[in-house]
Amino acid sequence: MENPKPQLLSVRVRERNQFLPLIMDGKRASTTAGKPIKCRAAIARKAGEPLVIEEVIVAPPNHHEVRIKIICTSLCHTDVTFWKLEHPPAIFPIILGHEAVGVVESVGEGVHEVVEGDTVIPIFLADCGECKDCLSAKSNLCTNFPPRPSHGMQRDETSRFTDINGDTLYHFLNVSSFTEYTVIDIAHVTKINPTIPANRACLLSCGVSTGVGAAWKTAKVEAGTTVAIFGLGAIGLAVAEGARLCGAKRIIGIDVNQDKCEIGKKFGVTDFVNSSNIGDKTLSQIIIEMTDGGADYCFECVGLTSLVNEAYASCRKGWGKTVMVGIDHPGAMLTLSSFEILYSGKSLMGSFFGGLKPKSDIHLLEKLYLDKELKLDEFVTHEVNFDDINKAFDLLLEGKSLRCVIYMNK
């Protein structure tokens, strides 16, 4: 995808009137700039309890900050994970959400990348453009603003949200998109092409980009190779999409849900293994038999250390790469044989946001979508209004949705 050479037919994009267009007021001066804004937000007040939509006050942006009017947002499994988490790093009350698209309402001092009226997506991973990592092609892990769950703005650790009683509401992943307006550091804001429908653009904010990037940027999947993907949720299917775009010849999807067999075909999955129906064999034995020695690339997309071990064992000796994309709990430990690591010559690596640099690589994905090569439409399985945001949680917990788009004002 540095020189994209998709091997399969392009996506047939639906008629434009089936999408939600971005509603823009034009790039005129905001009447609310510099003033607090009262709006609605979905607040998580206690772990695992339904979100409550309340009126909140959103402060104006400070130095290097942007206030954004959210057009629509989507629900990622990471939101659900932190919503259920009862212990630190979880904190309540908090405004969750981190996959979104919106329009710049106003900017703080020192912001020059965007202006009022620009269409942007917030991204939990910073791209400051100044540190050694951001200036290098080898890393996307910003030194100045390292990844963290975040409870306040990174530069001063204070919140821009208060409830109607004046009590502090906490930020989430430097974004907090379950609100009609949010304030985000410019390091986490990427300007995008406004012609991309909002209910598709929001997917580039996290999940799809992470999966596609894991295949393209982290693993650097080569044409004609074999890929095995452990877990066919939205991230795993995005890995399949990335592998397809990179020209992988064979893409093996592994999941406990038999329905993912047909779903996976939409994203280039050529073979399916139901891991709940393999008898006495291990997954690695199955994959090694299917591939005559192991897959060239294996991706763990569930977030289980046991699956990381199976993925690593499923990789071919000599050149196999195993990529961790799923996130287990912070204390989870891997156990690998040092002799196997030395003898096998295989590699194990992590992939955070797919190795993508938000302010440059996202534009390449935009172009692939507009050129009808990158699939986004198929990831959206449900859409709800903001008032029904808890329904989006139910759908994901029930395993019925890949991505549910939540419209702020439809």
- Residue-averaged pLDDT, rounded? 92
Report the sheet with the most strands, covering strand number, pairing sense and barrel closure: 7 strands, mixed
Q: What is the string of helix and strand elements?
A: EEEHEEHEEEEHHEHEHEHEHEHEHEHE
Range of helix content: 10-25%
Write down the Rg: 21 Å
Distance between the termini: 35 Å
Percent range for β-strand residues:
15-25%
Number of helices, where a helix is a run of at least 4 consecutive DSSP H or I residues: 11
Q: Which structural class should the secondary elements be placed in?
A: alpha/beta
Unreliable parts: 1-28
**DSSP strand tally:** 17
Question: What overall form do the CA principal axes indicate?
Answer: globular
Give a written overview of the molecule.
This protein is an alpha/beta fold and 410 residues long. The protein is 23% helix and 21% strand. It contains eleven helices and 17 strands. The chain has helices at 77-84, 132-135, 198-201, 207-218, 234-245, 260-265, 283-291, 305-314, 338-344, 358-370, 389-397; strands at 37-43, 52-58, 65-74, 99-107, 119-122, 161-163, 168-169, 181-185, 189-191, 226-230, 250-255, 271-274, 297-300, 321-324, 347-350, 380-385, 403-407. Strands 3, 4, 5, 8, 9, 16 and 17 form a seven-stranded mixed beta sheet that branches. It has a six-stranded parallel beta sheet with strand order 12-11-10-13-14-15, sandwiched between helices. The protein has a four-stranded antiparallel beta sheet with strand order 1-2-6-7, with no helix packed on it. Helix 9 links the parallel strand 14 (321-324) and strand 15 (347-350). Helix 7 packs parallel to helix 8. Residues 1-28 have low confidence and may be disordered. Pfam families: ADH_N (PF08240), ADH_zinc_N (PF00107).
